Amino acid sequence: MKFRVERDVFADAVAWAARSLPVRPSAPVLAGLLIEASNEGLVLSTFDYETSARADLTAQVSDDGSALVSGRLLADICRSLPNKPVDVVLEGPKVQLTCGSARFSLQTMPVEDYPKLPEMPAATGTVSSNDFAHAVAQAVTAAGRDDMLPVLTGVRIEIDGPTMSLLATDRFRLSHRELTWNPQTPDASVAALVPAKVLGDTAKSMTSGAEVTIALSTGGTGEGLIGFEGTGLGGVRRTTTRLLDGEFPKVRSLFPNEHLTVAKVNKQELIDTVRRVALVAERNTAVQLKFGDDQLVLDAGSGDEAMATEAIDAEITGDDLTTGFNPQFLLDGLTALDGEFVDLSFTQATKPVVISSTDAGEDNGFRYLLMPRRLLS
Questions:
Q1: pLDDT tens string 14-50
Q2: Which of 9, 113, 178, 241 could form a disulfide with 234 if both were Cys (CB 3.0 to 4.6 A apart)?
Q3: Residues 301-316: pLDDT tens digits?
């Protein structure tokens, strides 16, 4: 194996392929990055039996061949290389990498022990890469992080014709984002539960091209697999991941059909105020929000401890009420929203609030539902 490749193209592809490598692999070879050189160019791959990544890129290949090296080490090396062409050659049990006057020698692992990457399922449709990345970033806000509840660490993707819905919840909050996309068949109807971290990283990393192709298996070969294909620096990027097992809770009904109190506030002003007032809130205590007289008053702290209070203008329709929320969860939802103003919609003080953008436009269908916290008396 012998090839020459541009430094930026190689470094970007290595970093992308290595991003999903396991921190503690179950077998040493699963920490490896597979390099395959042929007359068709260069292919870089990683796979840990759950998530695979493959980057195709153009290179000047002198000799065909393949080698398996430490993915994280190679990524660290490529990140530090000078801006000159990179020459890579396999010599016996080692890969020699040269870039300008910098030279590295990497120990290889047995290629024959490396697992075969899964095939991409048939394409289900395409979506704007930027729209998809933004929608996923909003949706994963509410995804759980407790591995003891694996179903809640995923994002449920629901496809109904040209509409794609993304849902996530950790039991305390719920995010719902809708966007339009281009299905292969107009009446497509399918759902999948995708690990939130993989989905977030993948969507964010595939914005170089105009579109992302989504390939979701619904039966037969590749059952329980979703694939994404997009364009990266120097070539095509593909990634697959296994779907999560289990029944995602039926959360759509948690969004109420009507609201008795709706408060319209300036988003950034509310964010800044929550951050200031929350400075005195003890761990796991709520920030109080009091709605009334065209004002929203925020309070935190109690008794002999530090206290804070601040009021901001609000357009309030309906009954006055007082409630409280986990300040970080509230900030997570607010910062995920677009637009200048947000609506906080209530049925009653002890029920969840639905936070949505007032002026982000019809194309941004993001809603964030947050459960209230008990206020200290």
A1: 999 999 899 899 999 999 999 999 999 999 999 999 9
A2: 9
A3: 877 788 999 999 999 9
CB atoms within 10 A of CB 318: 14
Per DSSP, the three-state class of 59 is coil
CA distances from 49 to 20, 83, 115, 117, 225 (A): 11, 34, 8, 8, 11
* Beta-carbon-side half-sphere exposure of residue 348 (alpha carbons within 13 Å): 2
Beta carbons within 8 Å of 110's beta carbon, 6+ residues apart: 29, 68
CATH topology of domain 255-370: DNA Polymerase III; Chain A, domain 2 (3.10.150)
Which burial class, exposed, middle or buried, applies to 92 when counting CB atoms under 10 A from its CB (0-12, 13-18, 19+)?
Answer: exposed
pLDDT score of 364 = 67
pTM assigned to the model: 0.91
Q: Which candidate, 58, 29, 56, 59, places its Cα nearest to that of 45? A: 56
CA proximity to 58, closest of 110, 5, 13, 137 = 5
Q: Which of 319, 317, 261, 325 is nearest to 299 (CA)?
A: 325
Overall CATH class of domain 125-242: alpha beta
Question: Which of 204, 201, 196 lies closest to 144, judged by CA?
Answer: 196
